[in-house]
Amino acid sequence: MLAGKAPLDASTDLSLAYHVVNTEPAPIAQVATMPVPPALAELIMGCLAKRAEARLQTAALIGEALDRIAIDHPWPQRAARAWWAAHPAVTPGRDEAAPVG
Question: CA–CA distance from 27 to each of 24, 30, 39, 59 (Å)?
Fold first, then answer.
């Protein structure tokens, strides 16, 4: 997760379902622990939009938007490898307890 946490916080599955329908997530640029390019923040928030017509309608359109972002904000393989080495993935159930809801 780019922000370092889930976009909505809830202690139970029912509470999470309520928030998914009724609560706007905080803008990712405000909660991320590292800078997020504005175009990527806009894309992510658009994907989380409550109204279907406000979201990109196909995975192909999301892919095209990501391609444009990658051109404007390249992430060379060397930088990617260094980042992943410093931030190893955590797999729930293997590396930590999965959330109970």
Answer: 9, 5, 12, 22
pTM: 0.66
**Strand ranges (DSSP E) for 1-101?**
none
Q: By the 8 A CB rule, do 21 and 7 touch? A: no
List helix spans (H) across 9-50. 13-22, 28-31, 38-47
Give the pLDDT score at 74.
Answer: 84
SS3 92: strand
List 30's β-bridge partners, or say none.
none
* 10-residue stretch averages of pLDDT, the chain, 101 residues long: 77 89 87 85 89 90 91 86 82 53 45
Confirm if 2 and 91 have CB atoms less than 8 A apart: no
